[in-house]
Write a structure and sequence with these properties.
The chain is mainly α. The chain contains five helices and no strands. It has a single domain, classed as Cupredoxins -  blue copper proteins (Immunoglobulin-like). It binds heme C (HEC). Heme C (HEC) is lined by residues 30-31, 33-35, 43-45, 50, 53-54, 59, 62-63, 66, 70, 73, 75, 78-81, 83, 93. Pfam families: Cytochrom_C (PF00034). Keywords: Heme, Iron, Metal-binding, Signal.
């Protein structure tokens, strides 16, 4: 029984890791031209800062539909396109961004 539980936890770990890995791949393919990770300057915000300051569900909502969210996020205009991504890839990119910064500012509010 113990072995089964250990194997289950190990598999769960691998599958979570795989999602973040895919999220990183999707980020590089779809977002990296406009967003950096861990510094640098680009058109959109660095994802490390996004990870710090935004809730996971808000990050996902923005990726899905920037136009409906830009005012709520404090922007006066929307320049980010709505990208034709699969639901699974949006989830994985969200997991990837969320994983960049475990200590979230919004939790202190
Ligand atoms: C063509 C450039 C461009 C691409 C490609 C792009 N973004 Fe953006 N993104 C922006 C800009 C510019 C903003 C600022 C708000 C706006 O204009 O909508 C933004 C804002 C955001 C925000 C809100 C940031 C915040 O905390 O205020 C998130 C989250 C985000 N982008 C995620 C993504 C993800 C994930 C991808 C890839 C799937 C992506 N973006 C692709 C340009 C881009």
């Amino acid at each position: 029984m113990k072995t089964i539980i250990v194997m289950f936890i190990a598999l769960l770990g691998i599958s979570l890791q795989a999602d973040v890995e895919n999220g990183k791949k999707q980020y590089l393919a779809n977002c990296a031209i406009c967003h950096t990770v861990n510094g640098g300057s680009a058109f959109g915000k660095d994802f490390n800062i996004v990870s710090y300051t935004r809730k996971k569900e808000d990050i996902k909502a923005y990726i899905k539909d920037p136009y409906s969210n830009f005012e709520r996020f404090g922007y006066s205009a929307n320049a980010m396109p709505t990208l034709p991504l699969k639901e699974k890839d949006i989830d994985d990119i969200t997991d990837y961004i969320d994983s960049l910064q475990p200590f979230k500012v919004w939790m202190k509010k």
